[in-house]
């Protein structure tokens, strides 16, 4: 009973507890402001009251001041006597320097130094490659910025009916697309050779498989053809393998167009109204009229035409040139020749016999010749199907040097425009050879005779497989550039190292020494 009394049910009254959290939160949400007391500002400046210049100078003796201020005494009588004594000797030396050719062709190279040879561009025209066309020729324009190439076929195929192309690229233009030429010209016949005009950068001449010549103006996009020979009695009957812009002796700064062909003719064309190229004069290679001392192989003495494959003019005698022929010989010729040619076919102008001297032959047809731009004795190079390069002087029939560069054909050889001992050769096994008088087979070989005559300084790859390199040209304006075209339809622009673009101070003497030693 006592426990029940202790634990009974009941209800306690409720109570309220005020929330401190809500009060604090509401207080924090009230808009309040806070401002410090007003800040006073003032501007002031600091300036020294006085200024003074000061200098430090070592003491100078009175004697030194007097010596400095004293007028220099000149013995004019003795000076005049000295000048009179040495006058003749000085004039003699100045005259000797004036007549000297020690620095002919030498130019200071202000461009950046290139330590290695690099491939700057690999250019191609996809449509030409789809047709499996080959690069038959390359040429730089007068400014050195535009490179042109011709597409055709040199190995096999129906050349006469197959369309081809002439393409140009501006290698100095930013954003160059190597597979998109700046200009593409469609040509109805295979283009075998190209040559930009020497002074007009937009004009380029081409020789076709059909025997025709065409001149294009690359500044005219719609209709670039400005002159052509058409098919006439004067037109070549065989493919044209080289074109050359020939200075017109009668008109200053005017050029005529020269062409060579395996029909045995060397023809000079002049422009006429209506866009027509007319024959101005011509020459014919006839076996009977080539010097008897070195009779051509495979030709009997008769009126058989000798096919001309290449030509190069002397840089020192404008009327003298060297022609390479299918019989394996290089021939010294002259545009001043007057002997009538014994040629049976008709022509609108009399054809003359230009050959004056035949040089020791190659073992097969000569494909390329190149005259030295440096040597006054008219050194020239020749190459052909025997894989050899011959170095000749026009003064003797035997070669100064005979170099076996390849086991296959050599299609092109070119002297360097800046290095007297450097030349380039394009081989039939996909090799581009750049020697200084010596070279051996490989990929792309650069030789420097001053360093070594037995091994290349640099070897480069032109093509991946054994495809021929058909053509190459140095850039005479941007002398570090060399372009080479091959059978894959590709043109590569190589940047040469400074070793191959800067002439040594005694290099000309070295070349003279080489020529004189062998000739003696």
TrEMBL record:
Keywords carried by this UniProt record: Cytoplasm, Repeat, WD repeat
Regions crossing the membrane: none
Annotated localization: Cytoplasm
Highest taxon listed in the record's lineage: Eukaryota
GO cellular component: ciliary plasm; cytoplasmic dynein complex
GO BP, sorted A to Z: intraciliary transport
Entry keyword Cytoplasm: yes
Example of a GO MF term: dynein heavy chain binding
Stated name of the protein: WDR34 protein
Organism: Galbula dea
Upper lineage: Eukaryota, Metazoa, Chordata, Craniata, Vertebrata
Gene: Wdr34
